[in-house]
Amino acid sequence: MEFFAEMRIVMVGKTGVGKSELGNSLLGYKHFQPHALAGSSTSLCKYGTRMLKDGRKVVVVDTPGTFDTRKSDWKTTPEIIRCMELSSPGPHVFLFVVRIGRYTKEEQDAIDSLRAFFGEHILSYVVVVFTCKDVLVHEHMTLDQFIASNTELGTLLSNCNCRYAAISNWDHEIDRNKDVEAIFDLIQCTIQNNEGDYYTLDINDY
Ligand SMILES: Nc1nc2c(ncn2[C@@H]2O[C@H](COP(=O)(O)OP(=O)(O)OP(=O)(O)O)[C@@H](O)[C@H]2O)c(=O)[nH]1
Ligand SMILES: [Mg+2]
């Protein structure tokens, strides 16, 4: 596989799906404040960085769960532009975060509004990351069974070429790091498929 020295990642998804915790897992340290600790949700985009042992740089941007991409919502538009600035010159991937056990109409609306706002070409940069893999163990279910239980989820995954991974942010470090490695591999493959290209938003359109 070709080696891309930088991975710029933006995490999106509804509130409470585990974006901030996923960001911490990816960075390998507590940087973003998760829901339970803050008592409230992430309200502003924030970024963190990490250098991997092999010299690759990881940039992770956390976004508010209320990140509403409806064009008419001028309150959140500056936040979207800030998120693009934090991932400048543009993100290599958008991680669309889905909580296992929860894929509802709200989640579908979220991806639809992302497509409407960022354009259809965003799909080439989307990787779905399922959090709460630990829930599967409790429910004696495999990830494939969970995916098969929801037709819309199947549609979402096929729209982004079946690029998906799962993680438990609550796992012990060793297991969690294996999942993080798999997510980084998937991101590298995505960058390779896009020939090193990254997403750009023409802010003059907004
Ligand atoms: N069991 C389990 N809980 C998780 C996992 N990831 C996150 N959580 C919990 O889910 C809750 C929400 O996590 P956050 O990371 O704050 O979610 P968020 O998407 O950043 O939420 P907003 O900032 O409101 O958008 C917290 O209580 C987390 O500890 C996971 O993999 N397994
Ligand atoms: Mg958050």
Automatic annotation (TrEMBL):
GO MF, one annotated term: GTP binding
Pfam families given in the database record: AIG1
Record-linked PANTHER family: GTP-BINDING PROTEIN A, GTPASE, IMAP FAMILY MEMBER-RELATED
Family recorded in the similarity comment: Belongs to the TRAFAC class TrmE-Era-EngA-EngB-Septin-like GTPase superfamily. AIG1/Toc34/Toc159-like paraseptin GTPase family. IAN subfamily.
Protein name listed in UniProt: AIG1-type G domain-containing protein
Organism per entry: Patella caerulea (Rayed Mediterranean limpet)
Gene3D superfamilies: P-loop containing nucleotide triphosphate hydrolases
Top-rank lineage group of the source organism: Eukaryota
Keyword ATP-binding on entry: no
Domain AIG1-type G: 4-206
InterPro entries for the chain: G_AIG1, GIMA/IAN/Toc, P-loop_NTPase
Alphabetic keyword roster: GTP-binding, Nucleotide-binding
